[in-house]
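User: structure tokens for Cytochrome C, please.
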Amino acid sequence: MLEKKLLAGGKPHWGDITMPEADPVPPLSSDDAHTLIQWVLHQ
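Assistant: Done. Predicted tokens:
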């Protein structure tokens, strides 16, 4: 679920302020998303 949310984005969950986009935004691969989520969950 977290990997899908990371890749797809969406509405903010913690208030009404939308996080600004970085310029340029490189695409994130499924493998990179998995690695990031696993790292965060193990911190």
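User: Anything notable?

Assistant: DSSP finds two helices and no strands in the chain.
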